[in-house]
Every structure is written in structure tokens, then in C-alpha cells.
Amino acid sequence: MSARKLGMAAFRGLQLVFLGLVAAHVCFRWDYPVWWDFLPLVLAYVVVTVTNRWGGAPDSPRVAREPVAVAPPVTGRWAALNSPADRTPSHGIHAHGQTYAIDILAEPEPGSRPAFSPLWPLARRPQNFPAFGAPILAVADATVVRTADGQRDHLSRTSLPGLLYLMLIEGSVRELFSVDRILGNHLVLDLGNGTYAAYAHLQRGSLAVREGDRVRAGQPIARCGNSGNSSEPHLHFQLMDDPDPDAARGVPFTWAGIGVPRNGEIFEAPPVAVRQA
Q: Which of 80, 126, 204, 247 has CB atoms 3.0–4.6 Å from 2's, for a disulfide?
């Protein structure tokens, strides 16, 4: 087990110790100050910070890599969110190989995606979003090395109460269990040369490949969903240097013919002809 993976395991373990101490303090009415219970939580975040810098930060010159050119993972009209073209780490953390991750949302026509609502409706069905069920494509000739399916496609978190619930409660609970609960249904492809492509928040039951399968660039491999730590149906895509997101560091990418779209940028991904074996 790698040092980075051990660090993530320690991070989750210390969080559980914190919750146990708080519960025990309340139940047994221990007489020491309650702020001592927060020590494991502080240690947890020290551990995860050190873990994410283990062996050099993902964006340090010692481990920096040139962007890897791959095909787009979708076709049609999409919008970018949390893009590494605007900042790194794009999602605010290096953990889970997310340094250069990007989120994309289908926008087939202007205004076709339901807008964020301050209060009502609190949530929407995933089928109300144009990204839900959209085909997801292999970005290169590759081997499938990791699959996870079976998690439900939940309601959106596209209201202020829903978003607060996702950020303050749901996300923390998912992080406690495993990276699989964060990514939801997902796939990892081995592109060769120490580079792996991860696709997250896929639709339950939509995976068209299994571990060990060979795929071609442009081949449909799954459908977009709303599983895991997701506010609405979208694709979370990233390249990384290990097939296990807990052990991986992010790798920069560029999409052929598109580059790396910036936050809010609408881009058109052309169809990719699948090359026959």
C-alpha cells in the first residue's frame, strides 16, 4: 500500500475517532473540556495535507508533466465547470488525483439546463437535465482497469438548501466511507505510459465495459449520471498517475481540437470515428 493511500486511510480513521469521542463525551459526560475531542479532527487534516504533498506537490517542478493529449470524452455542446484552465487544483484539493480534473455539463441549447434555484424547487429528478444519459466515450485506445457500478442516481442539489446539504453533510459522510462514494459509479482506463483516465458520476447500470476490456478512442463506455458527490448530472473527468484515486496525483490533459475549456465556456465536441482493431 502506498504512502498516499495509507495517509487517506488515516485521514478517514481519525475522522471516525473524532465522531466517536464526541458521541462518548455526550453519553458518558466526561469532565474534560470538549475541545479536546477535536484533536483527532485537527490531526486528520494535518495528515491529509501532508499526504497530498508526499513526494512533491502535484504541481511542483519535480513531478510536473506536460499535458497529455486525448480525445474528448463526449460529443455535442457542453459547458465547463471547475476547470484547471482557471486554477489548480481545479476542485480546491489535490486529493483523489483531482488537481487537473474538470466537470462538464450538457448544454445542447441555451437555457436547456435547469437553472440554480435559491429555494424552490429544492431538488429535481436527474432526468430533467440534458446531461443525464448522454453517451460517455473512451478518450484513447486503452484498457479498463477499474469499474464501480450500482450506486443510485440521486436527486439534484441545485437549490441553496440542497447545495448546503451536499457541502456540509453529504460530502463529509461520503468522504468518511471511501473514494468510491465520492466518485459514485465510475471507470478508470489505463492509457499507457503511467497515465490513467477517470470518469465519475456515471449512470447506474450504464457501464458497457468490464475490467480487462480493451477499448478504442471514441467507443461508448458508459452514460452520464448523477451518482456520488454530485450536485446535478455531469461528467467529472481527470487524468492521473495511478489507477487508485486515493494513491494518485493529477496529470494535466488537453482535448484534441478543443484544448482545456475555461469555467463557463461552451464548447462543441465533434463526433469521434471509432478506429477498428
A: 247
